[in-house]
Amino acid sequence: MRVRSFYGFKFIPPVLVFWAGCAVEKGDLKPFAPLPESFDSRKNSGTEAKLKLGRMLYFDPRLSAGGAVSCNTCHPLDRYGVDGEPVSTGHRGLKGNRNAPTVYNAAGHLAQFWDGRAPDVEEQAKGPILNPVEMAMPNEQAVVRVLKAIPEYGALFAEAFPGEKDPVTFDNVARAIGAFERKLRTPSRWDRYLEGQDAALSAAEKAGFQVFTRTGCASCHSGPLLGGNLYQKLGIVHPWPDDADMGVFMVSGKEADKMVFKVPSLRNVAETAPYFHNGKVATLPEAVRKMAFYQLGKVLTNDEVEAIILWLRTLTGELPSTYIRPPRLPGLDSARGSE
Asked: CATH assignment of 48-181?
């Protein structure tokens, strides 16, 4: 928020004066919840051995055809899980057609990818490895051959998947990476506020939250992840100006799914530009304005945009620095870090 001075007096934008004068009501907080303690899966337990293996596989570029692209290339964990590009660069410099969303807290979404075509992070992990413009491995068997040629990986898979006759499989690659990603959580000041620490947010930040809710943003961005829990048409009130990508329709073929996308989470949104499925919106103020206009039919003032963004910044969480430290990769002479 910019506080402007006028002949020695401080001038606070009227929108913030109005909302700051109103306490946040319990009803306003009802659609929200703190970040869960975990995103664990009953089908894929996160044992220490599996997490260790998953971390290595996440960082290992040998899962790509050219040996240069890893999961961390497009989803760098020290940069809030995004590469900052409209679309990512993959094998041989090829470009994808959708923005790479953050992997942080993604395991809590109802599905994966912008069109929801993968039900969970385990299934999602398979996609980029075999995608010809991303990691470009020709097939599952090629991935397994690469890993079996690295003796240390054999022992790591056996430890992570005990009792299996042949544990080095493509499915187990996905399970290990998925287990690792399920621990990628970023609790923030917003969580502390929801848990009862009123001082975790300033009066201006609370006012920004009220502008957010009164504008109607919470109709899609609610729950513990403030999104990620439903699908929505892009361009409800006014047609979205770019319909080159029709979203879920491209998977389902159903007319009702045209321009429908999974609603992104607002967690860490201030750190994950550019925005939307094609990454064509570069700044957060522009993204806020577009959502208000195309989804809600509202034209926000500069002060309202600033107020909302002030609150959105409270959703920026803490990166798990120890957990995301690059590991030493099996079979490589040079260490990429320490475990």
From this structure: 1.10.760.10
